[in-house]
Amino acid sequence: MKNLAGAAPHHEWVVEELRADREFAAEYLKLALASLDNPDERAGGLLALRALAEACGGLAAIAASAGLSREALYRSLSPKGNPTLKTLVAVLKPMGLRLSVVPAPARPKRAAKKSPARRKPLRKAS
User: Fold this and answer.
1) Domain membership flag for residue 32
2) Given CB 3.0 to 4.6 Å as the disulfide criterion, which of 50, 63, 102, 112 pairs with 68?
3) pLDDT, tens digit, for every residue of 53-65?
4) pTM over 0.85
5) How many domains does the chain have?
6) Is 103 a residue whose pLDDT tops 60?
7) Which conformational region is residue 117 in: left (phi greater than 0), alpha (psi within -120 to 50 degrees), or beta?
8) Exposed e or buried b for every residue in 76-92, given b needs 16+ CB within 10 A?
9) Which residue segment(s) compose the domain that 62 sits in?
10) Residue 112, domain member (yes or no)
11) Residue 57 domain-assigned?
12) Closest to 93 in 3D by CA, of 119, 61, 117, 118
């Protein structure tokens, strides 16, 4: 596949948008962090946090501000990463962001299971 003239890769475009619009960056991260609840979507959430770190000065600068090694930050924000709460808070702080808690969307109530109807015992024919 050849590159299109004047086209920027998606990742670079996202980083530029995050850098340009702080409100967009906050909403982007809010959606990304919500995906951390689902193991099938966790990698996307971590990569979104990584893109935001790149937009806010780069991973090396964020790692230094957070008191982490660059390598540790790369590992934590990789698709298979598993950052601790301490790491998340430390990474968000130099970006001017913090964690907050909101109520989860209400789950639809399931209908109560009915107990199976009891059958009358069969009578023996006499």
Assistant:
1) yes
2) 63
3) 999 999 999 999 9
4) no
5) 1
6) yes
7) beta
8) bbeeebebeeebbebbb
9) 10-95
10) no
11) yes
12) 61
